[in-house]
User: Fold this.
Amino acid sequence: MQEILEKKIFDVDEIRKDFPILETLSNGRPLIYFDNAATSQKPNSVINALSDYYRNYNANIHRGVYSISIKASEAYENAKNKIKEFINASSEREIIFTRGTTEAINLITYSYGLENIHEGDEIIISEMEHHANIVPWQVLCQKKKAVLKVIPVNNNGELVIEEYQNLLSKRTRIVSLCHISNTLGTINPVKEIIKLAKLNNPETAVIIDGAQAIQHMPVDVMELGADFYVFSSHKMYGPMGIGVLYGKAELLEKMPPYQTGGDMISRVSFNGTSYNDIPMKFEAGTPNVEGAVGMKAAIDYIESIGLKNISTAENELLAYASEKLNEIEGLSVIGNAKNKASVISFTVNGLNAFDIGVMLDGSGVAVRTGLHCTEPLMDRFKIAGTVRASFAFYNTKDEIDVFIIALKKAIEILS
Amino acid sequence: MNKTIHETEEEIIDEFSFFESWQDKYEYIIELGKKLKDFPEDKRTEDNKVKGCQSSVWVVTRDEDGKIYFKADSDSTIVKGLIALLIRVLNGRTPEEILSSELGFIDKTGLKQHLAQTRANGLAAMIKQMKMYALAYKTKYESSK
Assistant:
């Protein structure tokens, strides 16, 4: 399917023309955008889809009897269908729109978690999780007197699978892990992790935070066997403010609503209310139709380039940047996993990451600095933060060259 | 006669007007940061820390003849350079002078663009902390009158 749609030749110069922001200047220099793990840039097709929606068929959906409302409703449902196909879910009923990955995880903790977790139950996460996949579980554990267990990370930034196996127990109810680490770039063996959880107890719910994976590699939720898979539109070239919770229908059907209001009900009276079927049970209120339309356009765009082309290009950028960075004296790459996505975190001998980031900005290079919402991981590596460069397929080796020159200059000035 | 806060700020704005590029401005700040060295090691404690998301600042004070003196440090050289400028403006002032200072130089030197926008660097928290100390001294002086 993807192969058919893929462009025959991957021409980065042509691709860059799809992203208007890449032609802008930052501090008087051409913008070099290496903060793709925080949010990706948007192609014209996405920007135009949003504008087209507001110009031509903006209406509230689902109950409108008039044509633009019907068109908007169709666009919303088409987006769901597109996402269903993109991740190979078995039905659109399994696709719930949220504000993003964070809200999707909160939905699971408040709905599935409050219902199914009891005193003494165990929830397993890992040392490399984003705060969004730590704090909701901590809150749930406090409420339910449950126990949070943490899979350690080795010096290369990989999960220690033997330790994970030791943590699995009769009380394990939930395993929630990132597919790819936002700080280290490590690609976790989630299929194996899910298999081990299910072997231990088929009832254990496994949640995969795919926020950093969905834009880099094909994801097939059925093949993975995940109970829940969550991700955000804005990291996959789509608009901000919308994301997806994929959940197996049999689990979603049993789960209580997370928020209540319009659209999620089937009948309301003062004697009682019955809820709508999934997925609408979890989508209270007017949904983000604009976001859904934009997200569909983003997936269309990804498919037009081809995920295979995307990952090949990004792997090349990663290899090139890693090689150049490793040549710099005093620089340490944090996270040297065998399987890595195009994210590189590093520290430089005694220099503050924020200082390096500010200096790079002066050269038009946008990177992220600090803890990357993974403070426990920073504690694990005993560092105060990193500089993180994360690449998308529209980045180039020339940009990496400019980044390396600017970085060397920054190090010289700051040392 | 010592310069007023306003005069010192004007002096800094004047100095910065000589820098043509962003790079030069920052190299100067980094130099100032590297020179700010006299912070006592034993004062780098949690109590004296003003925490930002990306860098931390430590600040201690003493007073003499109704005037306040600051010493500060940061794990960021750039923030340290900015602190050096703040100390140059606010050191040896009365609490009233510090509390009424508007510190317009941060904006007028073009530094604000990078530094005020973000809670990350701890500078905004540092200014607030310096004013809190001034307020504490003011209260102390008034109650001992």
The first helix of chain B runs from residue 5 to 16. Chain B touches chain A at residues 22-23, 26-27, 30, 53-55, 75-79, 114, 120-121 (CB under 8 Å).
